[in-house]
Amino acid sequence: MPELPEVETIRRGLNNYLPDKIIAGLEYDWAKGFPNTTADVEQFVIGARIVRIWRRAKMLIIDLSTNYSLIIHLKMTGQLVYRASKKEHFGGGHPSKSLVDKLPDRSTRVVMCLERTSQNSDSQKNTQPSRDATGGIRQSLAVSRDVDDKKDRNQWRHFGKNLSARECAAYLFFNDQRKFGWMRLLPTNEASDQYFFHALGPEPLAANFSDVAFCQQVRRHPRASIKAVLLNQSVVAGVGNIYADEALWGAKIHPSTKVSMLTTGQLNTLFIKLRHVLSLGISKGGSTDRNYVDATGKEGKYLTFAKVFRRQGQPCYRCGTIIQKSRVAGRGTHFCPRCQVEPR
DNA sequence: CACTTGACCTGTCCGC
DNA sequence: TGCGGACAGGTCAAGT
């Protein structure tokens, strides 16, 4: 699910907790989602201090004091959940009960054990295992291992501090039920626009990104539908299905419209609406409210700001016409057949 | 080359 | 209540 506003929301949330923490231990399942050599993880992740967390398009980058970075893509169903105490608890991404339920669960792919910088020396002395606190984690991982023991699955691999031996100050869970997401370790200098991100278009909310630049980017694909172009990460980085539909509704443009049929005025309007819906998404904390499922398991807010997305069969907020759903660019697409007329 | 479609996975929901 | 099929907010490789 996560698009730019959701990923940005996660970044802001984790930014309150992760910087200056030490990654004391890590374990992961399924090497496809974390295809680094074990030596690299051992050498550059374990014991590293988290320096900062930033975002490019839909990816999160955690810079480490070892001059390596963890790059995370949540794809459709990824989540990041930080757990320390009741007060320090944050999660974001795909809206499922894993945001609030006991972790790890069957969707958990990576678990990080975090320690506070100042607590390093203390933890060495604490030889008394706290089985209640973390024995449960080890047990759950064993369950996951059995469940996932199929051809492409790897065994859980473990690095650094034994997560079952002592209680960690905090945990970071990377969950992904659909296994499209991934986490990679790269030298920090390669985790930059020059290398890893070179094929991505501009950040739509960047201050120096103008309507003129947006127009130029879009018009490089005159024969494609405008929706396909908005979803193309090399045109504008970070837009996904929700915000594409929302922006097109705002600009009163039919999603199937070929770019060559659009006037510059229409594209300028689309640029404004796109930035608006992305900013609105961020201000609402993403489409997935972090209280989507609250502590009691009750459903919370979800997509409260959407004007068309998943509103098929309901009246358009502008004209009352029933919103339709079709398929454009291979994706479920929502639009008002009256406000958004395809030119021919 | 420009553009579209299928595959990657698992879980859920809907109709029979 | 069970079962097959369609579908899900992303991105590539493979296909037209």
Characterise this structure.
With 344 residues, the protein is α+β, with helices and mostly antiparallel strands. Helix content is 25%, strand content 22%. Strands 6-5-9-7-1-8 form a 6-stranded antiparallel beta sheet, with helices on one face. Strand 5 and strand 6 form a beta hairpin. The longest helix has 20 residues. The protein is elongated. The protein starts with a helix and ends in a 9-residue tail after the last strand. 42% of the residues are buried. About 13% of the residues have low confidence.
- The number of helical segments is 8
Question: Which structural category do the helix and sheet elements fall into?
Answer: alpha+beta
Question: Mind summarizing the main beta sheet?
Answer: 6 strands, antiparallel
Mean residue pLDDT: 84
**Cα-atom Rg, whole angstroms?**
22 Å
Unreliable segments (pLDDT under 50, ≥5 consecutive)?
120-152, 289-300
**Helix and strand pattern:** HEHEEEEEEHHEEEHHHHEE
Strand order of the largest sheet: 6-5-9-7-1-8
Q: Which outline best applies? A: elongated
Portion of residues in beta strands equals 15-25%
Quaternary structure type: single chain
State the total count of DSSP E strands: 12
Question: How many angstroms separate the termini?
Answer: 33 Å
